[in-house]
Each structure stands twice: as structure tokens, then as C-alpha cells.
Amino acid sequence: MKVIVLTGAKGGVGKTTLALNMAYAFARQGKRTLLLDTDMQGGIALSLSRGLSQRGGWFEYATQEVNAQSLIVSTNQSLLHILPHGQVVFSELVAFERAMQSGHALQRLRDELGDLYDLCIVDLQTGLDLRAAGMIDKADFLIAPLAAEPLSARVVPHVLSFVSQCQKAGAPSLFLGFVLTMWQAADAQSTKVVQEIRTRFPESFLFYTIISHDEAFVDANELGMPVGMLRTPPPAVAMLFEQLCVEVERRMQMTTEEPNHEPRYLVDRS
Ligand SMILES: Nc1ncnc2c1ncn2[C@@H]1O[C@H](COP(=O)(O)OP(=O)(O)O)[C@@H](O)[C@H]1O
Ligand SMILES: [Mg+2]
Question: 144 near 25, Cβ under 8 Å?
């Protein structure tokens, strides 16, 4: 099981939306996927169903000797399972912080479920803090969503510096890149931000796929589902997540491949 953590310095950038829709797209592409919500705001469960937000989940797992499989919820997509955040218990908060910051909770989850899933997508809480550092310490990869809005470019150095400090402290996780979200093509400011980020930062920092701002997210959120399930055929924006997942997979593979810049031709030119 490869663990991909979604993190960000700012809230409201589309992180939970990205986690849910990416997990759905990966499952559709045949990956046994676990969507893990470690954000105390429990955005995943809240957006999907009231029942889900009243269940036990990650909080119980991190603070008690319980089995993860008893807390995991299956979905209508056979390869997609969810471990919701669960119920916060005030007297257990210190234990929860400790389990997150030390990375023990995630390590235990990996030991228990490593063979059952191909991927675990983690919706982390907003903020570059010790909890994030603990999770990054036990994850394989990191992705940071970035809203296509003014000031976003300022967040980039903060995220990169935090990740590099985690790596210097020994975290093995690799940064796969920023994903621009909520891009409003008709809005000059939003487009300017995309251009600015594309020109200021190296190609390798940024996913080619950009998630557009789309009304379908409002409808899907209200109904509690990924955009790909909204209707048949699905809204065009759902395709962006399919493309993004291909790109994520490619970037994960690239971290283990030697780069080769020699041109190769489709047809022998000699
Ligand atoms: N690409 C998008 N287009 C339109 N609305 C979006 C998009 N992505 C997210 N939203 C909406 O923006 C709000 C915040 O998104 P969310 O994923 O919860 O952000 P975060 O987890 O970073 O706080 C939600 O109401 C969500 O439905
Ligand atoms: Mg969220």
C-alpha cells in the first residue's frame, strides 16, 4: 500500500474535494483504494452522509486498541473504502495528538492494511504542524492542492520549506507536486495566478492537470458524492480526476526511474 498525503497551508483550497474525487477515480481505475480522513473537521464524512459522520473512525483507531477493519466503511464503488475521522473525545485528545505526531497511528494502519489496499489517500487537516509532520514521516508521497486565487503563490515556499524540513528530519516521503484547483477560466485574476505559478516554479513542482471551478462540485457536495457519480454520462470535470490519477501514478513511478533525455524516434530515421 502506498500512502499519499494531501496537505496544505491554507483551508478551503479544495483538499477534501480532491481527496474524495481522486480516491474515487483511482478505484475506478482498478486500484484498491482507502480514503482516510484524519482531519478533525471530518470533511469527508460530512460531505458524504450524516450517518458516516456519526460513526467511529480514525480518532478511535489512533487512541484505542481497535482493529481498523471494524471501522472501515465500504462504498458503492467496490474498490473504494473509507476510514472516516470518527468521534473526538476530549479526554483522549492528548493521546490522539501523540499518536498523530509520532506517526505511530499511521504506521499501525500500514502494518494492518498494507496488503489489502494498493493506495491510501489521506485528507490531512489544514496546517503545517507537528501532526502533519508525523503523518508525512510515515507516508510515501505528498500532494498539495493550491487554489487558483490571489496570494496562493505565497503559500508555495512555505509548503516546500516544511516538506524539506520533514525530509531533513528523516521523513522518506516524496513531494509529487502542487495541484491547482478551483481555476475560473473566465476570471482574469484566477488565470493570472495560474500563469504566474506556471512561470515562476519548475514544471516538476506542478501537476499539468488543473481542476476547474465548476458548479458540479456544489451539486455533488449537496448530494454527498464524487462528481463522477453525479449523472450518466458524468460531468466533464470528472475526467480531470481520471487524468490527474494517471499523472499521479506516473509521477510515483518516475521517482524510481532513471531520467533519460536521449531522443528516441518512433520510426528508425537512419
Ligand atoms: N473545483 C471546484 N469548483 C467549485 N467548488 C469547489 C471546487 N473544489 C471545491 N469546491 C467547494 O469549495 C468548498 C471547499 O472545498 P473543500 O474541498 O472542502 O476544501 P478544503 O478541504 O481545502 O477546506 C466546498 O464547498 C467545495 O464543494
Ligand atoms: Mg477539508
Answer: no
Please identify every residue whose CB atom is under 5 Å from ligand 2, which is an ion. 15-16, 43
What is the CATH class of 2-253?
A: alpha beta
Phi and psi, residue 262, nearest 5°: -70, 130
Average pLDDT of the chain? 93
For 196-217, the pLDDT digits (tens) are: 999 988 888 999 999 999 999 9
Q: Report the share of the chain in percent with pLDDT over 90.
A: 79
> What dihedral do alpha carbons 256, 262, 264, 269 form, nearest 10°?
-170
Atom of ligand 1 nearest to the CA of 214: 3
Q: Which of 217, 241, 244 to mutate to test the pocket of ligand 1 (most atoms within 8 A of CB)?
A: 217
| Whether residue 214 has its Cβ less than 6 Å from ligand 1 | yes
Long-range Cβ contacts of 154-158 (<8 Å, 24+ apart): 155/8, 155/9, 155/10, 156/197, 156/201, 156/205, 158/9, 158/128
With a 6 Å cutoff on the Cβ, whether 149 touches ligand 1 is: no
